[in-house]
């Protein structure tokens, strides 16, 4: 990619003004040609087996809408993937573990079969709802999300690790306030890890580090940062990733993370070729 500002930079400071940030749906509409919503819950081929351990911690992952755009992340430091759905929606590289998500309160008729197949194929975790605290995403009250959790997620307790609904980093009643209310409403539920999203300027590294650290400290559980992104010039974002990736890899409370996203003109181009940020994400230590 040529130097200068890439698509994500056009979204901030609108991503986060510390009161309300842009929705994933709006990000998806600008980032790539694929509308950002959960794919249809049609059962597809079983997910690939989880990666063979190489002595390194499995942390770095990718989000995607089109499975073919994940090909160039094979054999890299990326080891898992998800697509906001219960089935992979195509063939992933065999060294990427697929992690299913219960996106929200829509058609979940294939959830049990898809999640069961994923676990049988090596998936170790299941993800809860996507940004239920945001109207443009799964848009659920804490009580409604708790009811869905008890119906669809809780039956898999002990079969896979269960990650909480993924909140935004918006201010109350979004973000942590929503999650606190959900945890109260879902008292007795099995929550093995806490999922969250964070977006801000690439130059605001301190905010990212403090927020991510605080999430691990506050909830006392492993954290999954299933979306994060930074605005600014290509160079600013390269600098951001080069600093953040070692930080995330070394922060013990962070179990996994995924940069937004393996989509057109972000980490890869329309053909799936790695762009500079994608190359950095693939290899940075």
From TrEMBL:
Q: Where is this region: Disordered?
A: 36-57
Q: Which InterPro entries match?
A: ASL1 (IPR053183), Asl1_glyco_hydro_catalytic (IPR024655), GH (IPR017853)
Listed GO CC annotations? fungal-type cell wall
Gene3D superfamilies, alphabetically?
Glycosidases (3.20.20.80)
Q: What biological-process GO terms show up in the record?
A: fungal-type cell wall polysaccharide metabolic process
Its signal peptide is: none
Low complexity compositional bias: what residue ranges?
36-45
Q: Ranges for the Asl1-like glycosyl hydrolase catalytic domain?
A: 61-281
Q: What name has this protein been given in UniProt? A: Asl1-like glycosyl hydrolase catalytic domain-containing protein
Look up and give the organism this protein is from: Hermanssonia centrifuga
């Amino acid at each position: 990619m040529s130097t200068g500002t890439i698509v994500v930079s056009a979204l901030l400071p609108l991503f986060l003004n510390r009161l309300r940030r842009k929705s994933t749906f709006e990000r998806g509409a600008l980032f790539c040609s694929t509308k950002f919503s959960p794919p249809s819950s049609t059962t597809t081929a079983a997910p690939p087996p989880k990666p063979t351990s190489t002595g390194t911690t499995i942390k770095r992952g990718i989000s995607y809408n089109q499975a073919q755009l994940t090909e160039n992340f094979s054999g890299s430091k990326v080891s898992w993937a998800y697509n906001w759905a219960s089935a992979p929606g195509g063939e992933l590289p065999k060294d990427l573990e697929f992690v299913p998500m219960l996106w929200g309160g829509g058609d979940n008729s294939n959830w049990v079969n898809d999640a069961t197949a994923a676990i049988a194929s090596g998936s170790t975790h299941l993800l809860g709802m996507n940004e239920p605290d945001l109207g443009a995403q799964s848009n659920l009250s804490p009580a409604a999300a708790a009811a869905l959790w008890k119906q669809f997620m809780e039956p898999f307790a002990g079969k896979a690790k269960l990650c909480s609904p993924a909140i935004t980093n918006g201010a109350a009643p979004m973000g942590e306030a929503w999650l606190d209310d959900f945890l109260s409403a879902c008292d007795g539920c099995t929550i093995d890890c806490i999922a969250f999203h964070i977006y801000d300027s690439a130059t605001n590294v301190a905010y990212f580090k403090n927020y991510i650290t605080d999430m691990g400290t506050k909830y006392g559980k492993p954290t999954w940062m299933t979306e994060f992104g930074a605005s600014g010039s290509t160079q600013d974002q390269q600098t951001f990733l080069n600093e953040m990736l070692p930080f995330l890899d070394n922060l013990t409370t962070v179990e996994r993370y995924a940069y937004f996203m393996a989509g057109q003109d972000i980490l890869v181009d329309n053909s799936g070729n790695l762009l500079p940020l994608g190359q950095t994400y693939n290899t940075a230590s």
